[in-house]
Fold this sequence. Notes:
Elements: E1 2-4, E2 15-17, E3 20-25, E4 28-33, H1 43-61, H2 64-77, E5 80-81, E6 84-88, H3 91-104, E7 124-130, E8 134-139, E9 148-154, E10 170-172, E11 181-183, H4 185-192, E12 201-210, E13 220-228
Parallel strand pairs: 7-13
Antiparallel strand pairs: 1-4, 2-3, 3-4, 5-6, 7-8, 8-11, 9-10, 9-12, 12-13
Helix pairs in contact: 1-3, 2-3
Amino acid sequence: MARIKLAPLVTDIAGSIGGVTFQRSRFGMIIRSKPLPIHSETSAQYRIRRLIASLQYSWQALTDAERLQWNRYLNFSGSTIRRDPTVLLSGHGLYLKYQLWRLMHDQPLLTSLAYAPMPDHFDLYRIEWDASPKIWLAFTGEVNKDEYFYICKLSSPRRETQAYSSIGIRWMEPLFVTTPKYEITGSYLSAFGALPVVGDYCHYAIRFFSMQAPVFTGVYTGKAKIYPKPG
């Protein structure tokens, strides 16, 4: 670390350049080595980055006519960017977003666009627990995996009175079987290290995607109580 003496022409300096950082301390202006960020990438983050890279290549491999289809599809689906519902996604953005979640659920890429609305779907209504211990997402009816799939994120246990927050929620990869209940024990343990118990509350965010077309719902959020699994 070295101190800097400022001149009349230079009254302040801050920021980084090359491998050094300028900053003000209680001793005045100093210069020090630029700190290197610590990258702690999880296996899930690595998988997502790898899939996005493969999707970039597959987008580039499309013909001009195929890319034009994705660009024009926004006039039908009306999908918008996350931070501004008045701005449509680009065709490239729609392709990456929709195809990524297909791959995350071990589904093949959608290669033919259909102008079809989002199919009706059943809603998440609670989380169930048994003494195995295991936990399940419980829906109001049987999820038709040939028509739609979903992404669901959960939090660690939170107080019943705590206001909903998306901070710290993690993606739960379900075991896809034909049932209104989907086990997420492994995903929850990987994300948080321990399972919630009966009476706990978890915050959730869930979105449904069509299997036939790149259309999807908005994000449904809320608080789900953990109930004992019947039977």
